[in-house]
Amino acid sequence: MTDDLGPGSGIERRRCERLLRELYENQTATVEALSRRLSRPPADIHRLLELLRQSGCGIETTPAGVQLNDISWPWWKAMLEDRSGAAGRMLGRHVLAFDQTTSTNDVCWQAARQAEERPLLVLADVQTRGRGRRGRRWESKPGQSLLMSILLPAALSNAETLTLTAGLAVAQTIETLAGVSTAVKWPNDVLVDGKKIAGILIETHWANPQEMDSPTVIDHTLGIGLNVGQQTADFPSQIADRAASLAMISHRAWDRLRVLEALLEQLERNCLHPPAPASLITAWKARCTMLGQLLRVHCGGMEIVGRVADIDPLEGLVLRDETGAVHLCKARETTILSP
User: Fold this and answer.
1) With contact defined as beta carbons under 8 Å apart, do 198 and 230 qualify?
2) What range defines the domain where residue 328 resides?
3) CB 126 within 8 A of CB 142
4) Percent of the chain whose pLDDT exceeds 70
5) Is residue 52 part of a domain?
6) What is the C-alpha separation between 125 and 7, in angstroms, rounded?
7) pTM score, two decimals?
8) What region, left, alpha or beta, does residue 292 occupy, with left being phi > 0 and alpha being psi -120 to 50 degrees?
9) What is the distance between the alpha carbons of residues 97 and 116, in angstroms, rounded to a whole number?
10) Is residue 177 over pLDDT 90?
11) pLDDT for residue 119 is more than 70
């Protein structure tokens, strides 16, 4: 595995990166304009454009000029680190990007033991053992999803608050980009029209895991999987009727890097500079459709069936069973079995 991706090296690579940044900022530009901005002859611009096409970038020539439709995976690391630094954004300044890895959360776990910069953003085009909550697998194919983890110092937030703020950030990003309404399903899913489009997995790293009577949290890993380019046939048959993607809900193609940048900006607002907890909870509950639902859950070693009387994203579900008894089901102890 390596994060040193992309065609060419040295001066040639830097020229391609400069051209790509110009196209990314403007999306459409004439060869003549690009030649002036980069101080390169038109013939050189055409040659660099061809190199970018060969590397997988979606570049086409239109009557208005050269148009960038999407940036291929090998260029993401350089683009993110450059743009995040220029924008004064912490998320994206330090990036590890992999063609394929077991799990981006696993990479963060390894990085937590080393002197890696934090926040550290880990990206993968493909995960071979991507996982969701309770060990469930997160299925993905190349070029279709955003698969990411962020290693964050524990001082920024606790795990419950991070789940809340990250889930809300994903929901808000989807709403802004696609112009649709979203729902959040406690504790960690984002839905559109009842179908799952994203999931969040928080894992905590302890300094002294053998001493759980006095544990010390040193880092959190925030894992996010967001479906971007899939169509129904791309999902495994057992979940195809319950899964969605940005492409499916908006009926258009998306440049995953632009989706990622929008998400990083929202995550920075929610997670690194969060507003008051009350406003976050209000925004989260406004998107929660679980109130009044009849649920079957496994909690604290027992199975409970009841209606959702209340929900606090930081504390858990309040279920009222058929006898009228009330049960508080905390996120870390609870699995929703149905519906």
Assistant:
1) no
2) 294-338
3) yes
4) 91
5) yes
6) 17
7) 0.89
8) left
9) 14
10) yes
11) yes
Q: Which two tokens stand for residue 67?
A: 């148009």
Q: What is the CATH number of the domain that holds 312?
A: 2.30.30
> In this structure, is the dihedral angle defined by the CA atoms of residues 169, 173, 174 and 180, taken in order, positive or negative?
positive
**Interacting residues of 311 by C-beta distance below 8 A, sequence separation 6+:** 186, 285, 288, 290, 291, 317, 318
pLDDT, tens digit, 9 for 90 and up, residues 207-238 = 765 555 656 767 889 999 999 999 999 999 99
Strands across the sheet containing 65-70 = 28-29, 65-70, 58-62
What residue has token string 């008894």?
Answer: 325
DSSP annotation of 295 reads: E
Whether residue 215 is contained in a domain is answered as yes
Q: Do residue 78 and residue 133 come from a single domain?
A: yes
Whether residue 100 contacts residue 126, with contact meaning beta carbons closer than 8 Å, is answered with yes
Q: Which amino acid is at 105?
A: N
Question: Would you tell me how many other CB atoms lie within 10 Å of the CB of residue 141?
Answer: 12
SS3 content of the chain, % helix, strand, coil (to 5): 40, 30, 30
